[in-house]
Specification:
Structural class: alpha/beta
Number of strands: 16
CATH superfamily of the largest domain: DHBP synthase
Bound molecules: adenosine monophosphate, magnesium ion
CATH topology of the largest domain: DHBP synthase
Shape: globular
Mean pLDDT: 96
Order of helices and strands: EHEEHEHHEHEHEHEEEHEHEHEHEHEHE
CATH architecture of the largest domain: Alpha-Beta Complex
CATH class of the largest domain: Alpha Beta
Low-confidence stretches: none
Number of domains: 2
Length: about 350
Amino acid sequence: MKTILIKINTQNIDETKIQQAKQFILNHECVAMPTETVYGLAANAFSPQAISRIFEAKGRPSDNPLIVHISDEAMLLDCIDQEITLEIRTIMNAFWPGPLTLVFKKSHRIPDVVSAGLPTVGIRMPNHPIALALIKASCVPLAAPSANISGKPSPTKASHVYDDLNGKIAAIIEADQSHIGVESTVLDVSTSPFTVLRKGGISIEQLQMIDADIKYDDALVNNISTPKSPGQKYKHYAPSKPMLLLEGSLENQLAYLKTISMDDILLISVDEIIQNINVPHYFSLGSRHDFEKAMNGLFEILRESEFLSISSLIVTAFEDYGLGATLNDRLRKAASEKINL
Ligand code: AMP
Ligand code: MG
């Protein structure tokens, strides 16, 4: 299949380009689109034929449900079979549009392939003018997982999508880099109390400021429970080279790094470590408490490490609070080995 590139300027959206992308959606094809979290692989959420193309292009396991993207509340009501209570509305008002997916009881209009057979559906209103314009123009919600081959780091640039999916999908919308850089937080509001099923662009502390009862799904705090979010059980975000994750205090991470030969290893860490060690190959994600900056650069450097002449990677974990917990979640899933210092 020939993949068409559609270049759109986020600051000055050309409506004819949106119409061009919409035609592919209406023909049950997949279109990669920019969102503020990562690039998504979008298709008509009401069309099982279109949805099967997403799973095929990504090589995604069929038991991993897709997030459905909407542009307004009317679309939400088409997708769910659940009352929007005051508690849910308060959360929607605080975080939509934005990097928060809400899991509701699904309506009959959502095909089982989208929800991977679950009675619920994850819904998000993205905070990106191009994604919103494409959803609006298509007049249907768009199911859109991250636009990467399953298992690889999520794409934060159109070129990452091209590297993974050229020849496998109808079109790629080329726009700017995703400014958040990691996926949405998934919050289950289909049962009470509401539970976080996946860490993401909104921290649990931010959610608890709106609703103090929100907690993590048991599987996110222990290794025994079965995750309620099927995607949590898969290996994810992994570069092709071995990656060692160092957990523990900054002092212990630094002391460990000083004991080993780093000749053909890429160190991905923070300024506070990199300024205090002499290694040939390094990349700083920024200051250790600037979690937003680190999220913005993480997937890109994991992808770029493929092209560097190094044999493996060492990454240092962050402090485990706020969005640091999201960063650590992605690092733990990407790592082939971990050391607790
Ligand atoms: P991705 O599309 O790559 O951002 O992954 C979507 C994530 O949301 C996966 O971890 C899914 O398992 C999770 N998810 C989507 N829909 C549901 C749902 N109905 N219930 C639980 N988790 C969901
Ligand atoms: Mg993904």
